[in-house]
Amino acid sequence: MASDYYSKQISNLIAEFSRLPGIGEKTAQRLAFHVLHMPIEDVKRFSDTLTKAREQVRYCSVCCTLTDREVCPVCDDQKRDHKQIMVVEDSRDMAAYEKTHKYGGVYHVLHGAISPMQGIGPADIRLKELMVRLQGDVDEVIIATNSSLEGETTAMYIAKLIKPTGIKTTRIASGVPVGGELEYIDEVTLLRALDGRTEL
Amino acid sequence: MASDYYSKQISNLIAEFSRLPGIGEKTAQRLAFHVLHMPIEDVKRFSDTLTKAREQVRYCSVCCTLTDREVCPVCDDQKRDHKQIMVVEDSRDMAAYEKTHKYGGVYHVLHGAISPMQGIGPADIRLKELMVRLQGDVDEVIIATNSSLEGETTAMYIAKLIKPTGIKTTRIASGVPVGGELEYIDEVTLLRALDGRTEL
């Protein structure tokens, strides 16, 4: 470890940054030295924000997204269609759909996807909470888990789980991204797009 | 900003990560959500490390490197040759040479390089401190600033500054990196390597 060549406080700081996902030793060093050159008030604000966010952020009691309120702003918005629930893997996916400004329903955040490889089973994601919500008045469940192996597995599992309730369950379309050039797109996506073709 | 779609504490956390160099909006979101899922004790330790490092780390009173002591371990090591001073741009460059375990002299850390483009002049780097050290018993100053425009400018400037003292001043060699394949190396480096050729 390069951090052995620094004094203890600096090594500790590098080590903390290295623990973050996708941050290698070199980047951790760069970030640590940046912090050491930052005005002390800025470092204190950063440090406070970390603990405050972690302490105050919790799961929305309705949709399970990460928020700093008991009920998140989306679930609290009476203008939205609470009978349409989009199921996503995490809060970032929810933010991605919110950015479109076109979806008027609400969400349910699973915080993960079923992955036997990683030992993540149905009980490890927020499925129980979803099933409780479905006992209320729900018209449609839109499954918007990722188009990955785990995302598809999760989608299938949820669809099977919802089936007995008779609630309409849909899956977002999978295909060629808008602006995507066919020649650069993988075969699986191309076939998926073909299967999902719609009449013009 | 995507962070508009998150609650305040989460947006603040994303904003703090975005302020770090080389961290874009997407990476900042990823890091923020990682922190929100970390055990609270780990977040507190990270947060403490940030402020503690920033508060306790200072410049070595001899070589100006960042350290948590009055005099850094290298400057404090009596087995090293204190008459040989390697001048580097920052503490990371010093760590890079320390990792070789072959350099037995000491260092002087400038904390930057002269860059008229960025408005960084000779007074903005730790040159005055170097000149003070040179009033002592010094045999050689090895200039190991980067092989960039700024690094070279700084090297020239320092060499001119030291000249009147009569102290031997050297510059680390510039050329083809070990293991480097000529065909992938830029022309300037190739010419530099040619100019710096040594007899076998």
Verbal overview:
The structure is a homodimer of 200-residue chains. The first copy, chain A, has 200 residues and is α/β, with parallel strands linked by helices. The first copy, chain A, has 8 helices and 6 strands; from the N terminus they run αααββαβαβαβαβα. In chain A, the strands form 2 sheets. In chain A, strands 4-3-5-6 form a 4-stranded parallel beta sheet. A two-stranded antiparallel ribbon of chain A has the order 1-2. In chain A, β5, α7 and β6 form a beta-alpha-beta unit. Chain A is globular. The relative contact order of chain A is 0.08. The mean pLDDT of chain A is 91.
Greatest chain-chain interface?
Answer: A-B, 56 and 56 residues
Give a short account of the largest sheet of chain A: 4 strands, parallel
Specify the structural class of chain A. Answer: alpha/beta
Helix content of chain A: 40-55%
Q: In what order do the strands lie side by side in the largest sheet of chain A?
A: 4-3-5-6
**Element string of chain A (H = helix, E = strand):** HHHEEHEHEHEHEH
| Gyration radius of chain A, in Å | 22 Å
